[in-house]
């Protein structure tokens, strides 16, 4: 009986596998001819023609232009239909909600930013989320029902056991035990939630400096200091979603914070977080410390320090860069000693602004502190990496569902 019930499904499953392979190739390479699809998939020309006709009829591919530059009539080209599905992502910080919608090819088609200043928001979180999403949807010329899936990135993580947001006391309004149910009721599409730094790692793994790497750590420093851990190609989130909350890590030379649940920070955050850069700069004699929000101040200071170079001169900006690198390596040493990753990606404005100069100093310091010797790189995805990771995460699941022609 098993053979009888299994056999009829086999051709359908094989067709679906070939369909998905062709769609992935079209996403990777752009418009392709029938002949090219056949060569890349290993299918015969008639089978490739049938496959493309089937995908066109299903609304998953479009017949576009023709090949040029060869004798005779051009061959018909096919491409993934961008309107086959849409996915959305949200990047949430205490000061704003940034939303974007992408078509199934990954192209961003609408973006909207909703300011949310103040520690006591008058607008409920559910309304913030729907307003931001609707703004991006409207900018894309769509309506909310067109969005197949939404991924929301926030600081901290929603505890899978309680459904409450943890490790993010600085995000007002997001800690209600009923929030996830309220959002599910307000939104028509499936919604996923992910830690913001984890999403930055997704962006680097899919699009940036970590492509092809199965084991890496992304160290993030912007509004807060955190890490994402990718082990065996998959995000490691921990039992309560708190894996990578390295801001709480006690490190030498940092204040010992005994009540982390109240303070929302710990030793490594106090030592090397963005908010520590202005004070460190003044201690080292930097006189042109700018004013403004501390992530922007930190990024400016680190960029100026990197421009001053990494020599041994007594320039206060150089001293700042060396001291900052030492502080970063002090915490990073614990991570690489335990995890032994192949790669460490430095991301977030307070790290990326230091460029290769900061990377080289951190690497040299790390070699003195840890036996592990991971490769250190600066992140490539510098424009809204959390939002880009949210879109990539939402698109991956959307494609798995929409491109599955066996359903």
SSE blueprint and pairings:
Elements: H1 2-6, H2 9-29, E1 32-33, H3 34-41, H4 45-57, E2 61-66, E3 76-80, E4 86-93, E5 96-103, E6 108-115, H5 125-139, E7 147-154, E8 157-158, E9 165-166, H6 179-186, E10 191-195, H7 196-207, E11 216-221, E12 225-231, E13 234-235, H8 260-263, H9 267-272, H10 277-283, H11 294-308, H12 316-339, E14 343-347, H13 349-352, H14 355-369, E15 375-378, H15 385-402
Parallel strand pairs: 4-7, 7-10, 11-14, 14-15
Antiparallel strand pairs: 1-3, 2-3, 4-5, 5-6, 8-9, 11-12, 12-13
Helix pairs in contact: 3-4, 5-6, 7-15, 11-12, 11-14, 12-14
Overview of the structural elements:
This protein has 407 residues and is an alpha/beta fold. The chain has three domains: 7-80, Winged helix-like DNA-binding domain superfamily/Winged helix DNA-binding domain (Arc Repressor Mutant, subunit A), CATH 1.10.10; 84-199 and 386-402, 2-Layer Sandwich (Nucleotidyltransferase, domain 5), CATH 3.30.420.40; 212-380, Nucleotidyltransferase, domain 5 (2-Layer Sandwich), CATH 3.30.420. Helices cover 43% and strands 19% of the residues. The chain is built from 15 helices and 15 strands. The strands form four sheets. It has a five-stranded mixed beta sheet, with helices on both faces. Strands 13-12-11-14-15 form a five-stranded mixed beta sheet, sandwiched between helices. β12 and β13 (234-235) form a beta hairpin. α11 (294-308) packs across α12 and α11 packs across α14. The longest helix is centred in the C-terminal third of the chain and has 24 residues, at 316-339. It is globular and about 70 Å long. The chain starts with a helix and ends in a 5-residue tail after the last helix.
């Amino acid at each position: 009986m098993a053979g009888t019930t299994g056999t009829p499904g086999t051709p359908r499953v094989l067709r679906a596998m070939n369909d998905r392979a062709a769609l992935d190739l079209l996403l990777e390479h752009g418009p392709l001819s029938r002949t090219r699809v056949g060569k890349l998939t290993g299918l015969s020309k008639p089978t490739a023609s049938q496959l493309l006709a089937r995908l066109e009829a299903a609304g998953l591919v479009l017949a576009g232009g023709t090949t040029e530059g060869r004798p005779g009539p051009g061959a018909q080209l096919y491409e993934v239909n961008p309107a086959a599905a849409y996915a959305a992502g949200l990047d949430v910080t205490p000061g704003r909600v940034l939303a974007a919608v992408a078509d199934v090819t990954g192209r961003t088609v609408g973006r909207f930013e909703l300011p949310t200043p103040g520690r006591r928001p008058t607008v409920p979180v559910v309304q913030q989320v729907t307003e931001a999403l609707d703004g991006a949807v409207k900018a894309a010329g769509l309506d909310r029902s067109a969005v197949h899936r939404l991924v929301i990135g926030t600081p901290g993580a929603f505890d899978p056991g309680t459904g409450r947001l943890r490790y993010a006391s600085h995000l007002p309004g997001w800690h209600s035990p009923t929030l996830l149910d309220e959002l599910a009721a307000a939104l028509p599409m499936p919604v996923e939630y992910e830690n913001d730094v984890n999403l930055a790692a997704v962006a680097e793994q899919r699009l940036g400096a970590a492509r092809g790497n199965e084991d890496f750590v992304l160290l993030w420093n912007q509004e807060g200091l955190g890490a994402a851990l990718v082990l065996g190609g998959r995000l490691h989130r921990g039992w309560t979603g708190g894996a990578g909350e390295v801001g709480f890590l006690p490190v030498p030379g940092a204040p010992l914070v005994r009540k982390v649940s109240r303070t929302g920070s710990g030793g490594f955050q106090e030592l090397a977080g963005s908010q520590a850069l202005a004070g460190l700069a003044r201690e080292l004699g930097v006189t042109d410390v700018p004013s403004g929000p501390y992530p922007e101040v930190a990024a400016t200071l680190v960029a100026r320090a990197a421009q001053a170079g990494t020599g041994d001169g007594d320039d206060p900006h150089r001293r700042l860069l060396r001291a900052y690198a030492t502080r970063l390596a002090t915490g990073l040493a614990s991570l690489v000693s335990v995890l032994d990753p192949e790669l460490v990606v430095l991301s977030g404005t307070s790290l990326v602004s230091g460029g290769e100069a900061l990377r080289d100093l951190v690497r040299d310091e790390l070699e003195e502190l840890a036996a592990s010797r991971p490769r250190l790189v600066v992140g490539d995805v510098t424009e809204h990496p959390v939002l880009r990771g949210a879109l990539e995460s939402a698109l991956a699941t959307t494609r798995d569902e929409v491109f599955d022609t066996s359903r």
